[in-house]
């Protein structure tokens, strides 16, 4: 019998890669979707015939109990979240509800459906739970690189909500013996990345500028340092974490640092343009409390999970630019242009 996985956030960047990966491993994959007519289902249109969908929302406890009860998954991947950090200053309560309380609701759904009320150590028979924790929890990092033992100093309501999700996951592991793990993933990107995130904002703008459809690209802090990897690599790590004998917390990244300025330079260089002719700084895009520097220490994950990133940063940016040149060209030909990202 194939293993069954339930993925929240199936319509997101990571959900699409994880769904694809689990299907390739022979899983029966269920995606939780919300809303009457979810506009982002288009992101997984290629997979739709092989996926199963079930309605539910991380804001709605009963819908999660019902989804877990119906699917009876072996593994639950909780990727659903409001993932754009600046939105968490505009709607902090909503972001806390979805990204923080939503984790508790999903853990409760598993606990209720499994009938767990006391420690239960037979991990083999349990629903295994993956929580999408984030390097944003390290925030104003107290050391670099950041590892599984580095303390947290989140800098946004998003980061604070993720810290709650992280600790409630650990607490259900310790209180109920649940097989619950957290992946503290550093930034990961792809051609499927939302247009509001900086790498995709850059790759889309570069494509539009190259094709003569836009001239300027407004950005905020070019000095911010991130550890960027490829999303397709990171979903393999999520799966590997759930195959370990004992549950735990893991840091996943590349261990290589770049600035936003590096991302800009690589992307513009790739199409033979000088970024200085096009990039303008908009102080409104600078965050109220910035995370200046993040870099992962992946020693533990690479040894114990036998996991390694396969796509270097320059290759990643180039892949995204090439994909966007193709996409923008196609949409331009069909007269259905993406509007320039304004975030
Ligand atoms: P994404 O592309 O923004 O996808 C977010 C997903 O969450 C979408 O499928 C969205 O569904 C769903 N969602 C939003 N609100 C929901 C709700 N109330 N109930 C159920 N689902 C809801 O994010 P991503 O980049 O794939 O990231 C996946 C997860 O990893 C997120 O939890 C994110 O915070 C975390 N993370 C991401 C990174 C990264 O660099 N990508 C790094 C660390 C951690 P709709 O289509 O309905 O909006
Ligand atoms: O910003 C700077 C910005 O929005 C990266 C999410 O997946 O990863 C992501 O969060 C950096 C920041 O990602 C612009 O100030 C400059 O320093 O691409 P981003 P993020 O905030 O790091 C973590 C790990 C997650 O968990 C999140 O869900 O780029 N930056 N100028 C800009 N950023 C944006 N978006 N737009 C700009 O114009």
Number of strands: 13
CATH architecture of the largest domain: 3-Layer(aba) Sandwich
What percentage of residues falls in helices of 4 or more residues? 25-40%
Strands side by side in the biggest sheet: 3-2-1-4-5-6-11
Number of domains: 2
Oligomeric assembly:
single chain
* Class from secondary-structure proportions: alpha/beta
Tell me the radius of gyration.
20 Å
At the first level of CATH, the class of the largest domain is Alpha Beta
Could you explain how this protein is built, in words?
This protein has 343 residues and is α/β, with parallel strands linked by helices. It has 2 domains: 4-188 and 230-252, NAD(P)-binding Rossmann-like Domain (Rossmann fold, 3-Layer(aba) Sandwich), CATH 3.40.50.720; 194-226 and 256-294 and 311-334, UDP-galactose 4-epimerase, domain 1 (Alpha-Beta Complex), CATH 3.90.25.10. Helix content is 38%, strand content 15%. The protein is built from 10 helices and 13 strands. It has helices at residues 13-24, 61-71, 87-90, 92-114, 157-176, 198-210, 231-241, 260-270, 299-304, 313-333, and strands at 4-8, 28-33, 52-55, 75-78, 128-134, 180-185, 188-189, 217-219, 225-226, 229-230, 249-252, 258-259, 279-281. The strands form 4 sheets. A 7-stranded parallel β-sheet has the order 3-2-1-4-5-6-11, with helices on both faces. It is globular. It starts with a strand and ends in a 10-residue tail after the last helix. Mean pLDDT is 94; it is low at 337-343. It binds NADP nicotinamide-adenine-dinucleotide phosphate and ligand F7E. Ligand F7E binds next to α6.
């Amino acid at each position: 019998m194939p293993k069954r996985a339930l993925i929240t956030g199936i319509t997101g960047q990571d959900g699409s890669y994880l769904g694809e990966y689990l299907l390739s491993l022979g899983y029966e994959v269920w995606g939780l979707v919300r809303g009457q007519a979810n506009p982002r289902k288009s992101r997984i249109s290629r997979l739709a015939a092989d996926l199963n969908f079930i309605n539910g929302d991380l804001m709605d406890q009963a819908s999660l109990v019902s989804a877990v009860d119906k699917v009876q998954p072996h593994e639950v991947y909780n990727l659903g979240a409001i993932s754009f950090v600046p939105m968490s200053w505009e709607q902090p309560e909503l972001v806390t509800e979805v990204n923080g309380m939503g984790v508790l609701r999903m853990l409760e759904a598993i606990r209720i459906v499994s009938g767990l009320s006391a420690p239960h150590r037979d991990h083999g028979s349990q629903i295994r739970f993956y929580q999408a924790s984030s390097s944003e929890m390290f925030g104003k990092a107290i050391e670099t690189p950041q590892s599984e033992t580095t303390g947290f100093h989140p800098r946004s309501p998003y980061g604070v909500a993720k810290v709650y999700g992280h600790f409630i996951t650990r607490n259900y592991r310790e209180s109920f013996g649940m097989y619950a793990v957290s992946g503290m993933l550093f930034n990961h990107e792809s051609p499927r990345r939302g247009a509001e995130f900086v790498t995709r904002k850059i790759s889309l703008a570069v494509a539009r500028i190259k094709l003569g459809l836009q001239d300027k690209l407004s950005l905020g802090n070019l000095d911010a340092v991130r550890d960027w990897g490829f999303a397709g690599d990171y979903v393999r790590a999520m799966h590997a974490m759930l195959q370990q004998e004992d549950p735990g917390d893991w840091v996943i990244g590349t261990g290589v640092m770049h600035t936003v300025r590096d991302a800009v330079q690589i992307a513009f260089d790739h199409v033979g343009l000088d970024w200085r002719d096009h990039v303008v700084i908009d102080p409104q895009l600078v965050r109220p409390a910035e995370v200046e520097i993040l870099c992962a220490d992946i020693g533990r994950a690479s040894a114990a999970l036998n996991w390694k990133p396969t796509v270097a940063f320059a290759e990643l940016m180039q892949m995204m630019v090439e994909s966007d040149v193709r996409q923008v060209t196609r949409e331009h030909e069909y007269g259905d242009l993406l509007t320039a990202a304004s975030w």
